[in-house]
Specification:
Length: about 170
């Protein structure tokens, strides 16, 4: 959302209990692993000067439907969840295009950070006073220092977000 947009000025709050963050990554070069990460908090602040987007995901509750894999992801060589249990995103720039929004920002995990571009569609009125935004991004896991043989964990991680926002009060 950019200055001049019709979005209501103020802070839109991500409703964590109605928002989902899922991911996919290749495993052993051919199998696709699906997982989810709970959204801890998030907000979209709209002002005449532009938009600020911030979000946090709770890596401590990552779920790939495989307890051993989830335990392995906690290790220092992978996501180092015990030392850094939160994945963060903070937008530097938000632009409206003909097909939706482009949100450029910084992804933080493992004590590392990297640029991330998120594309978003919406918002759609849910009819209950909340708004829905669908968003997604792809990034190279090496950008946050996640090292593993490529045949074990694919380099590209795809993130999908289904975000429900409560408008400013």
């Amino acid at each position: 959302m950019t200055a001049g947009t019709s979005a209501r000025v103020g802070t839109w709050t991500v409703l964590a209990d109605r928002t989902s963050a899922t991911f996919t990554v290749r495993n052993f070069g051919f199998r696709v692993v699906h997982g989810s990460i709970p959204v801890s908090l998030g907000s979209v602040r709209v002002s005449a000067d532009g938009v600020v987007v911030e979000a946090a995901l709770d890596l401590d509750k990552i779920d790939t439907a495989n307890a051993k894999r989830d335990a392995d992801l906690r290790k220092p060589g992978l996501l180092a969840i015990d030392a850094q249990p939160v994945l963060t995103f903070a937008a530097d720039r938000v632009d409206e295009g003909t097909d939706g929004w482009t949100v450029e920002g910084t992804l933080g995990a493992r004590g590392e950070s990297c640029p991330l571009t998120v594309t978003a569609a919406g918002p759609e009125d849910n009819g209950d006073g909340t708004w829905r935004v669908l968003a997604g991004a792809v990034f190279d896991r090496r950008a946050i220092g996640l090292r593993a043989p490529r045949f074990l964990i694919g380099r590209e991680i795809t993130i999908a977000l289904d975000v429900v926002l409560a408008p400013p009060g």
